[in-house]
Amino acid sequence: MQLPQPLIEGRLVRRYKRFLADVELNNGTLVTAHTPNTGSMQQCAVPGQTVLLSKSDNPKRKLAWSWELVLVNNRWVDINTLRANRVVEEALRSNAIAEFQNYRLSPEFSFADSRIDFRLENQDEKILLEVKNVTLCCQTDVACFPDAVTKRGQKHLRDLISATKDGWRAVIFFLVQRGEAKSFTPADAIDAEYGRLLRLAVNSGVEALAYRTIVTRKECRVGEQIAVQL
């Protein structure tokens, strides 16, 4: 999908209070930007990194600036977790993901006491698909999730396991924002329970898929599939 334009380049000074980042623009101006990412942002919030910001002209916004991309290992990484579902939705609607061709799509589907990101349906089957945005590499070319303990993510895995018992096809979809990643694995050193539940989910019939994104200054879109190593 297309990114907000224009994007303004700067240098990260610090990320703090979870949703705030101080950035020095290339013209020397220091601005505070909203950070649309609830994770720890390991490897993506290192002072001195090159970042790209968008600026809103909405007078009702508390902060005009938003942090969109960061340069890690000479590759752009989309840190805006609010965009991940829209990137996947665009790919689903255009049949750009091989496993899901010509399905009817319902975002934010209520299941049990949770909201699963997508319900897909055709005449033959119904699918629950949960998306996770991945910005961390645990090894040079191995992406991993999560970058912080995620009770919500653990609950989603339990919900998907429950869905398979109710006759759903259930999928956990890792949207990998690291262009160097050749495979994906759970971040056991960060959240061992998530890793345990992911393996349990797969053994229970939940599908785990990982697709790498293609990120430029102008767009973020779903690229090629990479291996999931459990």
Explain what the structure shows:
The chain has 230 residues and is of the alpha/beta class. The protein has 2 domains: 8-78, OB fold (Dihydrolipoamide Acetyltransferase, E2P) (Beta Barrel); 81-228, Trna Endonuclease, Chain: A, domain 1 (3-Layer(aba) Sandwich), CATH 3.40.1350. Helices cover 17% and strands 44% of the residues. It has helices at residues 81-93, 151-165, 192-203; strands at 8-16, 20-25, 30-34, 50-55, 65-72, 75-78, 104-111, 114-121, 126-134, 136-139, 142-145, 169-176, 183-186, 207-215, 220-228. Strands 7-8-9-12-14-15-13-11-10 form a 9-stranded mixed β-sheet. Helix 2 runs parallel beside helix 3. The radius of gyration is 18 Å and the shape is globular. The mean pLDDT is 96.
Salient structural properties:
single chain, 230 residues, alpha/beta, OB fold (Dihydrolipoamide Acetyltransferase, E2P), Trna Endonuclease, Chain: A, domain 1, 2 domains, nine-stranded mixed sheet, five-stranded mixed barrel, 3 helices, 15 strands, 17% helix, globular
